[in-house]
Amino acid sequence: MHATIWHNPDCGTSRKTLAILQETDGVTVNVIEYRKQPFDRATLLQLCEDAGLTPREALRTRGSPAEELGLIDGASADHILDAMVEHPILVERPFVRTDKGVRLCRPQDKVREIL
Questions:
Q1: Fewer CB within a 10 Å sphere, N or C end of the chain?
Q2: What is the DSSP string of 65-96?
Q3: How much is the pTM?
Q4: Torsion angle in degrees (nearest 10) through CA of 14, 79, 38, 107
């Protein structure tokens, strides 16, 4: 099985999710450090849709400039998505895709649903 993780190495949950992937027999892992390789809009939108989330639900509000950018109250999904593409720190993490689906792996054990 192949897995892709959109990873932030400074995030404990992201590191723990990556460790689960690496420790699972038969899984090859592609790591995308999304702060170095930012999301394009289409990919981010597809990840949200495949995970069953709205852009608002995938928005990181803690430790991000979401409030300063006016994204907390009343921002449209398009506005949030555009801001997330421009400021990758706004994306909650980590997203993981496997052949079995996509999950926003918070907590990290959610990754087991798609392994």
A1: N
A2: STTTTT-SSS--HHHHHHHHHH-GGGB-S-EE
A3: 0.95
A4: 10
Q: How far apart are CA 13 and CA 111, in angstroms?
A: 11
SS3 51: helix
Structure tokens at 64: 């991000």
Tracing tokens 């809009």 back to the chain, one arrives at 41
The tens-digit pLDDT sequence of the chain (115 residues) is: 999 999 999 999 999 999 999 999 999 999 999 999 999 999 999 999 999 999 999 999 998 999 999 999 889 999 999 999 999 999 999 999 999 999 999 999 999 999 9
Two structure tokens written together for 69: 């950018």
Phi, then psi, of 3 in degrees rounded to 5 = -130, 140
The residues that are catalytic are: 11
